[in-house]
Amino acid sequence: MASKLYNINTNQNTNLPSSGIYFGGNARTIALQGTFNATINIEASYDGGSNYIQLTDSDGSALDITTETIINVSVGSGVKLRFITSSASGTSDIDVYVA
């Protein structure tokens, strides 16, 4: 069963949460569901949140999520994630679930 990891609720271009959120790691499924008025990307930190690396698809392209989607993520354990909003044109209210 999926559990809610985070809620992205903003009308700004920003990093949420700014300090990151601990992710259970390993191979997991992430679902983003709600109202999209921005482009969402995901970053991972392997050093507790000092440095972040943008997640990409298998071709090395940015995720650029603009609609409800499900993605498979394999990042290892002890990783922090944060969500990057860009091109905001209104308030986004997106629930992030992990399974």
Concise overview:
The chain has 99 residues and is mainly beta.
3D architecture notes:
The chain has strands at 3-10, 14-23, 27-35, 39-45, 53-54, 69-74, 79-86, 92-98. The protein has 99 residues and is an all-beta fold. The protein has a single domain (3-98), classed as Jelly Rolls (Sandwich), CATH 2.60.120. The strands form two sheets. A four-stranded antiparallel beta sheet has the order 1-8-3-6, with no helix packed on it. Strands 2-7-4-5 form a four-stranded antiparallel beta sheet, with no helix packed on it. A hairpin with a 7-residue loop joins strand 4 (39-45) and strand 5 (53-54). The radius of gyration is 12 Å and the shape is globular.
| Spatial strand order of the main sheet | 1-8-3-6
SSE topology string: EEEEEEEE
Total number of helices: 0
Number of strands: 8
Distance from first to last alpha carbon? 6 Å
What is the global morphology? globular
**What is the CA-atom radius of gyration, in angstroms?**
12 Å
Look at the structure and give the mean pLDDT.
Answer: 95
CATH architecture assignment name:
Sandwich
Question: What is the secondary structure topology, with strand pairs?
Answer:
Elements: E1 3-10, E2 14-23, E3 27-35, E4 39-45, E5 53-54, E6 69-74, E7 79-86, E8 92-98
